Amino acid sequence: MLIYYLLIVALPNYLVFFNIINVIIFNERKKLTPYIKTLKSQQKTIGFIPTMGALHQGHISLVKASIAQNDYTIVSIFVNPTQFNNPEDLQKYPRTESEDVQLLTDYGCDFVYLPSTEDLYQPGEEAKKYDFNGLDLVMEGQFRPGHFDGVATIVSKLIKAVDPSRIYFGEKDFQQIRIVQEMAKQEGLDVEIVPMPIHRAENGLALSSRNTRLTPKNLDLSPQLYAILQQAVQQKKQGQNPAQVKQFVEQAIENSPFELEYFEITDEENLNTLHVFSDNIPARGFLAIYAGDIRLIDNIQF
Ligand code: PAF
Q1: pLDDT by residue for the chain (302 residues), tens digit each?
Q2: Which domains does the chain have, with CATH numbers?
Q3: What pTM, to 2 d.p., does this model score?
Q4: Ligand 1: does its nearest atom lie under 6 Å from the Cβ of 80?
Q5: Is 50 in the pocket of ligand 1 (CB under 6 A)?
Q6: Cα gap 137→106, rounded to integer Å
Q7: Does the beta carbon of 173 sit less than 6 angstroms from any atom of ligand 1?
Q8: By the 8 A CB rule, do 175 and 139 touch?
Q9: What does the DSSP assignment read for the chain?
Q10: Do 109 and 71 meet the contact criterion of CB atoms below 8 Å apart?
Q11: Residues carrying an active site annotation
Q12: How far is the CA of 209 from the centre of ligand 1 (A)?
């Protein structure tokens, strides 16, 4: 037991501490899980940020929060095939593994989990089918059938592999957070889910790995999306009801270079369409558009 502890836990920590290695990389669940178990047996807290890589400052804001709130921080990088309903999107998803690991090292992340598909899925295994009580039937779930089954399947597997104290998600994917909360409740997973505010560029564009695929022209134009969402909030403040605000946004997108997929105003809890704004019901407006062939999403709290 002592030898195991010295080799598997103490030695890597020592190497990191003295900058001999910067971050400990795990490729296999069977090595990662016992390692974390040992740390947790010493009452250490583990903050976890699951990602699909192509990391940007949005991810780094989650890493920073985790470092501030936990003894150790781990990031997983895995482009999860079961959540892509469009094979071309999966194939073109940006993969920048060595830059990602360097960035995580620079920001003081302790561990990176870089699994192969085989480490997480059995051969031929598909996403588990969940009943999310309707949370998956609207917006992203409606336009990307099966997407949330894939997300919930992989997040469940990752939580079981990492066994974190806290798991961090950005509110740009607000519906994803509600899905993960529902999945964690149904599966009885003992983890604190920490939603973090959307991280925006100075011009307002919500940071996303997909932004790297925008043409320079669309990258210049895309801050318009946040401007439209902010105007929508102003409309509400001026007394417009959700249907009127929705019409305003639809019109504004029609006059923009983007193609609207949906704009919905829903309550935050059940993601049901909102008919009246009320101080007691937290609400959000959710937008999905195409900029050329790149799909972007954003949302704003009302
Ligand atoms: O938000 C993402 O990047 C992914 O959906 C997640 C949570 C890492 C699961 O693959």
Answers
A1: 556 555 555 655 555 555 555 899 999 999 999 999 999 999 999 999 999 999 999 999 999 999 999 999 999 999 999 999 889 989 999 999 999 999 999 999 999 999 999 999 999 999 999 999 999 999 999 999 999 999 999 999 999 999 999 999 999 999 999 999 999 999 999 999 999 999 999 999 999 999 999 999 999 999 999 999 999 999 999 999 999 999 999 999 999 999 999 999 999 999 999 999 999 999 999 999 999 999 999 999 99
A2: 2-196 (3.40.50.620), 209-301 (3.30.1300.10)
A3: 0.93
A4: yes
A5: yes
A6: 40
A7: yes
A8: yes
A9: -HHHIIIIIIHHHHHHHTTSSSSEEE--HHHHHHHHHHHHHTT--EEEEEE-S---HHHHHHHHHHHHHSSEEEEEE---GGG-SSHHHHHHS---HHHHHHHHHHTT--EEE---HHHHS-TT--PPP---TTTTSSHHHHHSTTHHHHHHHHHHHHHHHH--SEEEEEGGGHHHHHHHHHHHHHHT---EEEEEPPPB-TTSPBP-GGGGGS-HHHHHHTHHHHHHHHHHHHHHHTT--HHHHHHHHHHHHHTSSSEEEEEEEEETTT-PBPSS--TTS-EEEEEEEEETTEEEEEEEE-
A10: no
A11: 59
A12: 11
For ligand 1, atom 3, which residue shows the shortest CA distance? Answer: 51
Cα of 79 from ligand 1 centre, angstroms: 8
* Rounded to 5°, angle at Cα 175 from 255 and 146: 95
Q: With b meaning 16 or more CB within 10 Å and e meaning fewer, what string describes 82-91?
A: bbbeeeeeee
